[in-house]
Amino acid sequence: MKISCNLYIEYDNSEKAEKILRSIKVDDFDFVTSEVHNKRIEATIKSKSVSSLLHTLDDYLACLSVAEKIVDKN
Question: Would the pTM of this model clear 0.85, i.e. be above it?
Answer without folding.
Answer: yes
